[in-house]
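During the reporting period the student researcher (J.K.) took over the structure-prediction task from the postdoctoral fellow and processed the backlog of single-chain submissions. One of the processed entries is reproduced below for the supervisory committee.
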Amino acid sequence: MQSDHIMRSFDEELRYLTNQIGGMGGYAERMVDEAVAALVTGDTDLARKVIEDDAFLDTKEREIGEKAVVIIAKRQPVAADLREIVGAIRISGDLERIGDLGKNIAKRVVAVTETRQPARLFRGISALSDLALAQLKEVLDAYASRSAEKIGVVRDRDEEIDAMYTSLFRELLTYMMEDPRNITACTHLIFCAKNIERIGDHATNIAETVYHIITGTTMPPERPKEDKSHKVVAPQDAMEAGR
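J.K. obtained the following structure tokens:
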């Protein structure tokens, strides 16, 4: 971020936005991590904490948006400064949505814990979460350091998250077909996995915003667009076994 403005107060206002985004990012990471931990361990108290914590991100997004509007009206920024401010608005929106997705995972903990599922299914959820959170951490580090070098790698990793989600979707679908009693819990786990996959999408959005803030240009359009779960069909032998 530039810090050579004639008015030091302008630099302080821009630093305020950067610091608030950093705080939101760390908070969103922790919410998702705790939501998945609650899901894996069946900790309903931790799940309730995550749900309550979401209000903080809602408030922070609103504060950042209001502050950004005031700065634009007062300073009438252009070029890099304007990208900085608009970028903060966009990133705060993505972080707020990541918090919502973490909350949605936490809200499903009770339903999943009513009938415990094999540990291997939770290992898949945990691995997917680790990958998505690593992606989010890297892009937030790039934002804090204003480093564009790893942005492309962060965005490309979204394809790996999509592939892992598709594999987990297939596994959960097969498990439901083998025993209809698993349908309720596995359906909730599929929604949880999809929420984590969407967290990866929001991290990718942040990566593209950070790249634009730093360089003033948009990233090349070559970006993985979707998971392949819509192409997954339950194995015939699994369907027959469930009859």
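The committee noted the following: The first helix runs from residue 8 to 41.
J.K. will present the remaining backlog at the next meeting.
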